[in-house]
Design brief:
Elements lengths: L1 E5 L9 H15 L3 E5 L9 E5 L5 H10 L5 E4 L2 H10 L2 H8 L2 E4 L16 E3 L18 E6 L10 H7 L7 E6 L5 H13 L3 E3 L5 H9 L3 E4 L8 H8 L4 E4 L2 H7 L6 E2 L4 H13 L1 H14 L5 H21 L1
Parallel strand pairs: 1-2, 1-3, 3-4, 4-5, 5-6, 7-8, 7-10, 8-9, 10-11, 11-12
Helix pairs in contact: 2-4, 5-10, 10-11
Length: 322
Amino acid sequence: MHIKLVIPSPKGVLDGNRVTVQRWARILKGLGHRVGIEGRYQGNSCDLLIAVHACKSFSSIGRFFREHTDRPLVVVLSGTDLYQDLKRGSEVTQSLSMATHIVVLQKQALEEIPQEFRPKATVIYQSAKPLKGSPPPPKSYFRVCTVGNLRPVKDPFRLALAGRRLPASSRLRIWQVGQALSSEMRKTALAESRRNGRYRWMNGLPYWRTRRLIASSHLVAITSRVEGSSNVLSEALVSSVPVVASRIPGLIGTLGTDYSGYFPPGDTQALKRLLLRAETEAEFYQKLKAECTRIASVVQPQREQRAWANLLKKIEQTEDRR
């Protein structure tokens, strides 16, 4: 098949959605398909359109639906689709109506989809490949990294605020990776770097450097208020790096309800307590590590590839019956 992937990410910004789409393109090409990526559907002919973001890709979804009513259309739901836009307006619902198939990135998302659309839905967990030859974590300090472009939905400075509350005896250091998507975010990151001796803002890094940083950290913190899923979570899990995470549906859907490393979204004090326990209580740290190792099978590349192969087989069978 000739497949088009539509991803409405800003040009020049490597965000989670673009990482996901680039990985999917490799998977789909590996399955024998011809694949192109574009920011908006331009009207070029293709056998299948896969659109990321029901809301942001609404115009692309609508155009493809009008011009190719007989062709399959996959809509991939993001976190903002599921946990914000679905409640606010009709564009997400219209996109789900036009879709022949829906993809969500963790099982908890199924509960958010209106009942009428759930038969269309497939769960495809995001995967990551383990790195080879990653350096070990530092011995002189306890490194916690957080990764994601700086924007309010990620609550990007929650980790830095928690770090400020740690006792002077703590050896914990915070490394933050992500481009500032507004001048206000940039000012905040620079100010935090000046006032917080534990904090280091790395700005945007090449993907390979980010992966090595994750793999060589003691802990990864995911502080988002909204997530559809998380590439950073997958990357930490396959590198056997435990995580602390805000207790939100988009992360519970992968980590499970009983994971020991949750804190309430936006709760600086609770996050501080988790960080201190992970740094100073070896038994708690090993518990987090063991739980993450157990969960890691969900985000293996072979599983994601099989999921896409199964979905495309289902799509082709549906087309053959028409």
